[in-house]
Specification:
- The complex is a heterodimer.
- Chain A is an alpha/beta fold.
- Chain A is built from nine helices and ten strands.
- Chain A has a six-stranded mixed beta sheet with strand order 6-7-8-3-9-10, with helices on both faces.
- The longest helix of chain A has 15 residues.
- Chain A is globular, with a radius of gyration of 17 Å.
- By secondary structure, chain B is mainly alpha-helical.
- Chain B contains ten helices and two strands.
- In chain B, strands 1-2 form a two-stranded antiparallel ribbon.
- In chain B, helix 1 packs antiparallel against helix 7, helix 3 crosses helix 7 and helix 5 packs antiparallel against helix 7.
- Classes of the chains: A alpha/beta, B mainly alpha.
- At the A-B interface, helix 2 and helix 3 of A face helix 6 of B.
């Protein structure tokens, strides 16, 4: 069963045709990793699902069409988004960032989960979010997405720009979150992808060129051909 | 010394009027990126509704009647601002040139309608007799109406701060000023914050319109233009989207203008323009504004 189904999605931004009929499925309760070289349209795909860009085709969430809906309604339907550049509210405190994101009437359990994943956010609740380190800001961005009951979590390059130690921490959190969530993850870090991926989609020049199991990630020549990086085992 | 105090406090009083006009402009631009040239018409609507009410409340306007006229004028301007936002601005988000053209159009239409109805001549705004007295501050006799301008601006600043700091809609507005797309992505309808800001901005401009009419010795559709220009200057110097920045800039401009005019008649506007140019060159984001990437 699929949580999200994208069919023949075309997106143009300022007259540039970015997505050329993208089609893929995101299975329920699995981590689907969206791979591809820089500039092939991975982030645009996530942002189009969130309703940031207009497009044609179909995007359905649990069978319900969400393409064309306003962004806040898409989020309320159960799509949570962790953007590439975190996009936390720098002038607000950590507590205010979380409070803004929380839409549940009884949010105690959600806060408990978030603080168990990121104890540091509890101790830094009164700190202005803009003064946090890159890793801490990433924690805020992920925490915001976990405060509501979601059908799917869209996560865009969560380890980008982080120090190796922080990459491991974020990876660990993502794996814990993945245990009971449906996730569509854009990630360049191949070792993390291999640990977490249960379903793989590869994009090239605005199109999906592979969709299937993660076994292919162990094939070095395939990885090199598809992603232009070395990886996998021959 | 008395002269110094007198000029300083009357300057702060003038700055208070600028702040009432600029606070809404600043929030509207900061949150929605809307350069709202119709803001002057909110001021006019508030001024004329307040004027009409004060004239019809009785032969002598008491302080409570004046305050009532000010509040009703503010509410009418807020309602008008909300109407403009719902009917016109919501259709033009992210279309900045169209927004400028439409809001200029609104200000011209409102100015023409009010001019046709009430004429463009100054009509004396009924005020309490207390306004014509003076208050002794450190030996300087300060016109009492200045005290009302300053008190109103300070009250509005505190109310604004409390709303932004302690309410959920305030939290949404503060977050929306930074990144409205991300607020939407969190499942929060930022449009509600837009409407709230338009109403509050209109309310402040309407209250300002009543007080500006008292300061200008009468109400006229032509007054709004001058104050709108000063409102924009305050917003630029204070920093787009920063209400405290607007407050500081408004006070600075009011005081500098008064002092400059006292020592060389007519120099006030020139000094303000020099200040504006200086801020744009040295700190383009304004005193408390955030630099845009």
């Amino acid at each position: 069963m699929n949580a999200l189904s994208v069919k023949d999605l075309h997106v143009k931004i300022n007259e540039s045709h970015i997505l050329h009929g993208v089609s893929f499925e995101v299975p329920v309760n699995k981590v689907t990793v969206l791979l591809g070289r820089n500039g092939v349209g991975k982030s645009t795909t996530l942002r189009s699902i969130m309703g940031f860009y207009e497009g044609t085709g179909s995007i359905s969430l649990n069978g319900k069409e969400i393409l064309g809906m306003q962004t806040y309604k898409i989020a309320q339907s159960g799509v949570a988004f962790v953007p590439e550049d975190r996009e936390i509210f720098a002038s607000l405190t950590v507590r205010e960032n979380l409070s803004l994101a929380s839409r549940e009437k009884n949010s105690d359990a959600a806060y408990k989960l978030v603080y168990s994943l990121f104890p540091e956010l509890d101790t830094r609740a009164s700190q202005i979010a803009g003064s946090l380190s890159g890793g801490q800001q990433q924690m805020v961005a992920i925490a915001r997405a976990l405060l509501n009951k979601n059908e799917i979590l869209l996560v865009d390059e969560p380890t980008k720009g982080l120090a190796p130690k922080l990459v491991s921490e974020v990876a660990e959190v993502l794996m814990r979150v993945a245990e009971h969530s449906t996730m569509l993850l854009v990630e360049q870090n191949l070792s993390l992808v291999k640990k977490i991926a249960q379903h793989v989609i590869v994009m090239d020049q605005g199109r999906v060129v592979y969709q299937g199991g993660p076994e292919k990630l162990n094939d070095a020549s395939w990885v090199h051909q598809m992603l232009g990086v070395s990886g996998g085992h021959k | 010394m008395e002269t110094f105090i007198l000029i300083g406090i009357t300057g702060i009083g003038l700055g208070a009027l600028y702040f009432l006009v600029a606070s809404g402009l600043s929030l509207i631009y900061g949150l929605m990126g809307v350069l709202n040239f119709a803001h002057g018409s909110f001021l006019s609507v508030g001024a004329f509704v307040g004027y009409w009410l004060a004239r019809n409340l009785g032969p002598e306007t008491s302080m409570s009647e004046f305050i009532l006229a000010m509040i009703i004028g503010g509410l009418a301007a807020g309602a008008f601002a909300l109407l403009v936002e719902q009917l016109l601005i919501t259709r033009l988000y992210d279309r900045h040139i169209d927004q400028a053209l439409v809001t200029v159009g609104v200000s011209l239409v409102v100015g023409a309608l009010l001019g046709g109805w009430f004429t463009n001549d100054l009509q004396i705004f009924p005020t309490p007799l207390w306004f014509y007295t003076a208050v002794n501050v450190g030996g300087a006799m300060i016109p009492a109406d200045r005290v009302v301008y300053i008190a109103t601006a300070v009250l509005l600043l505190i109310a604004n701060w409390a709303l932004l700091k302690f309410t959920r809609i305030g939290l949404i507005i503060r977050a929306g000023v930074e990144n409205r797309h991300m607020v939407n992505a969190l499942g929060v309808n930022v449009r509600l914050a837009f409407s709230t800001v338009f109403f509050l901005g209109g309310f402040a401009a309407g209250v300002g319109g009543v007080l500006v009419s008292v300061y200008s010795n009468g109400v006229s559709p032509l007054i709004a233009g001058t104050y709108l220009i000063y409102g924009f200057i305050v917003v630029v110097i204070g920093g787009m989207g920063s209400v405290p920045g607007s407050f500081i800039a408004a006070m600075l401009i009011g005081v500098i203008r008064q002092f400059a005019n006292y020592y060389v008649t007519g120099l006030g506007d020139f000094v303000v323009v020099i200040l504006l140019a200086g801020v744009l060159l040295i700190r383009p984001q304004g005193l408390l504004g955030k630099a845009r990437a």
